[in-house]
Amino acid sequence: PSGSLLYPYGPDQGDETNPKHDDGTSEAITLSVPFIFYGKTFQTAFVNNNGVISFDEPVRQYTPDPFPLVDGHPFVAPYWADVDNVLGGDIFYRQTTDPVLLEDISQDISQYFPKNPFTATWALVVTWNHVAYYGSTSEKGNTFQAVLTTDSKMFYVIFNYWDIQWTTGAASDGDAETGLGGTPAHVGFNSGDDTNFYNIPGSQTDAIINITTTSNVKVPGRWVFRVDDFQV
């Protein structure tokens, strides 16, 4: 979308598209550059329809739980809620070394973290495009994006929120007409070690619908974190 925070996405960018399955997931993605998250190195990721990028194994759970999770699953949750891409929307992803995109990412991160000069060499770009919620009787859709990126020394995650219209699927006690109420979406990072985690303010409250207006880098709708040695 014009004026959007989102980095380019879609089939014309070479993106893969997730299957149309409720609680579905991508195939295992072998990362061309191993990704360090909370001090551990991962070489496999899954793009899960329900707003989660997980390492080593998929996450099909649709109602979010508070972090830290005790099940040991390390993952990044740009918007963990009950997405149903059968009812509407698409989930796209690609690994990229495109120099134009990497230059944009590098400039953005260097602006937000000026003490750590950063030149991206790789990124995984994942976009949820106007995705519906489970049980929806409306036309509401959420559009958001998560980017994992590195220069092989530092590892960052960028969350971009463009249009958030619902917080909750009907199986999580949400209202089928509004997509609100019940157990709202969770946004944050779960290390998998039972101890370390980060919840973005408003997670699992009705206020999470306003995430397009909040930020930790003074850009409404964008949150950026260094995640190899997690820093808030």
Automatic annotation (TrEMBL):
PROSITE patterns: NIDO
Chain spans, region Disordered: 1-24
InterPro entries noted in UniProt: Epithelial_Barrier/Signaling (IPR051495), NIDO_dom (IPR003886)
Annotated GO biological process: cell-matrix adhesion
Domain NIDO: 78-230
Pfam families, sorted: NIDO
Protein name in UniProt: TECTA protein
Species whose genome carries this gene: Erythrocercus mccallii
Gene name linked to the record: Tecta_0
